Amino acid sequence: MRADAATLPDLTDLAFWAAPESARLAAFAHLRSLDRPVFFAEPRVPLLRPGGGFHALVRHADVLEASRLTAVFSSEPAAVSPEPPPWLPMVFGRPLVNMDDPRHARLRRIVSRAFAPRRLEALDVEIAEIVDEIVTRLERRGSGDFVADAARELPIHVICSMLGIPRERRGFVLSRIDVMTEYSGVRGEMHRLATARLLLGNLRAIVDLRRFVVGLGRQRRRDPGDDILSALVTADVDGERLSLRELGSFFDLLLVAGNETVRNAASHGLVLLSEHPGERERLAADPDALMGTAIEEIVRMCSPIVQFRRTLTRDHELRGHPLPAGSKVVLFYGSANRDEAVFDAPDTFDVGRRPNPHVGFGGPGAHLCLGAHLARRELGALFRAVLARLPHLRTAGPAVPLLSSFDHGIVALPYTV
Ligand code: HEM
């Protein structure tokens, strides 16, 4: 089925992502009701986009199938969406998320130790200190922008601390990440010039960060510490060491994946709790019992990552629909998380929802989010402190959404305590 029927939304058009959230949710509900995945053509942009198109996987079961069958649904050449230019990995290396097993599994093992529950427990003290600083700032200011004052502060300090990046360099790192992620999700023929300009800015930001990490990596090779960066530069993969290019792309991924997502989940969390005072009171009355399910529900409802893509390694039938080898599919997590076939009252925010088999952290499979437990700890600590110390913290106006088809982001969010 092609996307040319008048009733179908065009997921490749930036205008679709600029539409109000309610319109987008309705469009995805319609796509879910169709008996097969819809194909969307993507324009080829010389040097920037390979083009072609993709089938949109919008049902929960389809996202699960594509996440599980990694031998059929490959993350190479790229899982990120829109697909980066084919020359990008040759220059900057291929990040873990765009890699298949067995190399993916070996690399993932190196960093996964840093995300093991015992290591994360040790990080709780640091997370509590960062949260304490944030809540004190919100209390002192009384009103302002929640993204600037709270949401963007939490993950950058946590991930930089794990990577062993000194505090005084974190402002620089964050500014580069902000530029890098501007490119994500921008798409469409009409935006070709804007895209080229953004891509140039993006490349400059990657180069700046690369210089920074190479310097830091050399220093850690000489004098390793107890951080992920030291683990990476001293690691042995397939009998070889990581090249500085591979180290750089790993570093970019951890910084980007660990920042935007938590930042946006925190902001959406405040919106949801402000819009649902009953659920907020329920959570505040018993955070020990409900914080875990509340965080899962925030991630389900807001789905901070909109989409990832896969490329078929061979012909495959999905729900009886043939997908040829070489074709692409895009997994729409937010749509799967509202699938009425899986979730009762999917549009209702329920802090005690159980079961909640959402795919906000990706579907079960080799690429399931490496930082999911860390994200849960950060968000849990933040909302616990907010409910305990700032019982009247609320949004004070509408959120300014990020125009992107990749990050379900919030650029600014007025608050008042
Ligand atoms: C609410 C917060 C988060 C959300 C919603 C989220 C979402 C996701 C999703 C959907 C994927 C799946 C990619 C795929 O299947 O192709 C993923 C992978 C990944 N995430 Fe997260 N993430 C979050 C937080 C974090 C944090 C805090 C970190 C690290 C500090 C992190 C690091 C990663 C990495 C390294 C991968 C790639 C794993 C692989 O390819 O094996 N994420 N994340």
Automatic annotation (TrEMBL):
Coiled coil: none annotated. It comes from the Bacteria. Belongs to the cytochrome P450 family. This is Cytochrome P450. The lineage of its organism: Bacteria, Bacillati, Actinomycetota, Actinomycetes, Pseudonocardiales.
